[in-house]
Amino acid sequence: MRNNFLMILMLVLSSCAQIQSSSHQSESPTLFERIGGLPVLTLVVSETIDMSASDPKIKRSFDGVKLSTLKQSVVDQLCVLTGGNCVYEGETMKNSHRDLKVTSAEFELFVETFRTALNKHVATKEKNELLKILAPMKRDIVTD
Question: What is this structure's pTM?
């Protein structure tokens, strides 16, 4: 009887240990959290769009665009893509860039501006993770 009790106790403790172990794994911070959340995303996006909208080589893509609305939309999208608790209600990248005729050169200049802002505010590991998530969007943005 005592052996049965010990066996059951060991099984229960083992199950508890497995549950605790798996709950610790799911509690690892999201990329959104590691980046610094909305304050950092908002700062990076704002700097990137402000610099891009004033750069003579790529500013044509921002002509007639309400920059505050664009910034919020990009922040929401990045928040969702990095695991934050936001809602992105904007267009797909393909639809929102369809008529802009963005060239590869313009895209690369924008990415360089984005990297510059990320370098100021985000650690290298998180910056690279974010860029890896965003890289496939190039095919939906560039039309040349």
Answer: 0.80
